[in-house]
């Protein structure tokens, strides 16, 4: 009968916390009383069930806890078991839950929102492909949930794939942390890949990547194929074994072009990578502004076919040349970027118990090919004499 007391079995008396006994506890009729552990991730319930406060003041036996294996939930055309704790948002630890929830969001056309306390250990790649598209937003808002790679080296973590049955609009990927586990183990492949190899018929466009942090993979972000009209804002690729960001054009199996186009990048932080901060392989239709590129081995931004706009970025000790644009593409403007160098610091890698140089000291802010326009770029030098740095190579 209510009100209830929490009794110490050893003493037969109510438990006392800070001088206050656990007694005369009550809730509204129909509500439940449960006990949870606050010292374990996920706040698991440690009471055998929940006690419902009856309206007639008659005790009701505790409800049995849910089964270990919950009923299957369908997502992405496959059947998965999803085990979730938490409040109104999914609080997850299992990779199968993440896979099922992401694919359910794709199938049902909504943006999945996770409890930010979610910590997922991932051992196998997760692939997401939306079977039909309405043009409205879909994808994931992780609230800074963390995904940590514990699988074999070289495999991609999250891949969002185009569907050749129709172009896809509205993909949202935001507020996530992905660790590729390459600090002292074999790194994953790409932390996030957006792939549309089938050309325009299977394109991914009008997408948004925002507030995503990647580290210790082979590559942080990989875009390939017919991926266009997208915004990437405040995205981080740090300490990767190759590039912080990589992109390339493709040719579809039927011979159609599958080209990256019209990507807007704002405030990227692509630093401390053993390749380039950003590598554009044949891709030129990208605008990059307000970025930070620190201590990358091959350079801050390295392209093979131009870069539409590169403006107001900072690069420090990143390759011999920070912004290397050897071709004009369809028109390239390199404007008001700053390089900073001490003329000596270069990217290094710890190998077999010793540091090995993998980059060169930064000497130039920009190097450009015929037709590329550069203006108002700077070099800040803070090393000793002689000063060998220049703005343009």
Structure, explained:
It is a single chain. The chain is mostly beta strands. The protein folds into 2 domains: 1-65, no CATH class; 84-392, Pectate Lyase C-like (3 Solenoid), CATH 2.160.20. It contains 1 helix and 40 strands. Strands 9, 10, 12, 14, 15, 17, 18, 20, 24, 25, 27, 30, 33 and 38 form a 14-stranded parallel β-sheet that branches. The termini are far apart.
Number of strands: 40
Overall body shape: globular
CATH topology of the largest domain: Pectate Lyase C-like
Q: Count of DSSP helices? A: 1
Described by strand count, sense and barrel closure, the largest sheet is:
14 strands, parallel
Low-confidence stretches: 65-80
- The amount of beta strand, in percent, is 35-45%
> In the CATH hierarchy, what is the architecture of the largest domain at level 2?
3 Solenoid
CATH class of the largest domain: Mainly Beta
Cα Rg: 27 Å
Q: What class would the helix/strand composition place it in?
A: mainly beta
Distance between the termini: 84 Å
Mean pLDDT: 90
Total domain modules: 2
Report helical residue fraction. Answer: under 10%
Descriptive terms for the model:
393 residues; mainly beta; Pectate Lyase C-like; 2 domains; 14-stranded parallel β-sheet; 10-stranded parallel β-sheet; 1 helix; 40 strands
């Amino acid at each position: 009968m209510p009100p209830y007391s929490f009794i110490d079995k050893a003493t037969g008396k109510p438990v006392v916390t800070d001088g206050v006994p656990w007694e005369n506890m009550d809730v509204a009729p129909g509500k439940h009383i449960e006990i949870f552990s606050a010292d374990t991730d996920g706040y698991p319930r440690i009471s055998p069930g929940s006690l419902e406060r009856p309206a007639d003041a008659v005790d009701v036996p505790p409800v049995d806890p849910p089964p270990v294996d919950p009923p299957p939930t369908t997502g992405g055309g496959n059947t998965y078991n999803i085990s979730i704790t938490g409040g109104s948002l999914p609080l997850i630890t299992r990779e199968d839950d993440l896979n099922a929830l992401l694919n359910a969001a794709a199938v049902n056309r909504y943006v999945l929102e996770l409890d930010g306390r979610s910590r997922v250990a991932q051992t196998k790649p997760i692939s997401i492909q939306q079977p039909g598209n309405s043009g409205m937003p879909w994808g994931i808002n992780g609230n800074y949930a963390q995904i940590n790679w514990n699988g074999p080296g070289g495999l991609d973590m999250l891949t969002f794939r185009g569907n050749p049955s129709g172009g896809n609009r509205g993909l949202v990927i935001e507020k996530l942390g992905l660790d590729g586990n390459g600090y002292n183990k074999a790194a994953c492949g790409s932390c996030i890949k957006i792939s549309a190899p089938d050309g325009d018929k299977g394109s991914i466009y009008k997408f948004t990547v925002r507030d995503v942090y990647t580290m210790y993979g082979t590559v942080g972000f990989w875009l390939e194929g017919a991926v266009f009209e997208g915004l990437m804002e405040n995205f981080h690729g740090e300490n990767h074994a190759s590039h912080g960001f990589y992109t390339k054009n493709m040719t579809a199996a039927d011979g159609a072009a599958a080209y990256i186009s019209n990507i807007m990048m704002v405030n990227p932080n692509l630093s401390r990578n053993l390749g380039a901060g950003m590598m554009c392989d044949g891709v030129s239709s990208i605008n990059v502004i307000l970025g930070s590129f620190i201590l990358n081995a091959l350079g801050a931004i390295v392209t093979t076919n131009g870069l539409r706009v590169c403006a107001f970025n900072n690069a420090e000790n990143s390759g011999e040349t920070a912004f290397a644009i050897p071709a004009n593409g369809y028109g390239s403007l390199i404007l008001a970027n700053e390089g900073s160098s001490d003329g000596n610091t270069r990217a290094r890698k710890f190998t077999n118990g010793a540091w090995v140089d993998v980059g060169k000291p930064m000497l130039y802010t920009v190097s450009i090919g015929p037709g590329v326009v550069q203006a108002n770029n700077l070099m800040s030098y803070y090393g000793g004499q002689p000063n060998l740095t220049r703005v343009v190579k």
